[in-house]
User: Fold this.
Amino acid sequence: MRSESQTDAIDHNTDWIILEEDEAIEENLRQWSTDYLESTLIENSDLLLRVTDEGLQLAARYRELQAYDEAMKILEQMGNSTVFEGDFERKCELEHLSALVAFDLGDYTTGRDMLVRLIEKSVGATREDNNRELLWARVNLADALRWHGEAYSAPSLFAELVKPVRTTSESRPSALPLEHEAEPAQQLDVAEQAVRLMKDSKALAAARLLKDNHLQWVRLKDFWTRKEVPFIGYTPWTKPPEF
Assistant:
């Protein structure tokens, strides 16, 4: 039978063991974030994709913990990976997350310019490259623009996303506006509201909003996710950027 002093000693030692284990886990995590990612980015496509997705998740986790410098280090380290050369969706995830961290660190200009360049790759002639991640990027960029006194630039971010619902009896088919036609301000506003509802997982509310305004999505596929990309689509639930 242990004495009270022996029990206290065991509890004390246990506390130290747990503390040491926590510190070891934290150190391993930090080491993984800097050295492991670099050493494992090899010419093995399956492993490369897995490490890339895990790296994005780790960076997002650091951001949630407000460890912004650590998050940025990981993202910068991953930036040269060959994965992003042929995978536009993952590239969007990387740059969107990098822009959010830039905002968090107080670098508004870098974050803004990064998202503007990214979104420009999915409009006009490259409209087919639009994807779910870029829709969420539009929302965060719009918030950033308004916070920093550039609200006039926000509505245009939501162009080419919705179109009027036209009946078969109308002579002109339902399509995107011609290049010389500017979308009505009300249409852009509804498009933004609908995207925000989709971001909040309120698809039915978004559908009702569009129907009430006689609008429809240009391409519902923009909101689809790829099953083989587990991290894609994670950012809707990350915390909003710090301004």
Remarks:
- Residues 10-83 form one domain.
- The chain has eight helices and two strands.
- The first strand starts at residue 162 and ends at 164.
- The first helix runs from residue 4 to 40.
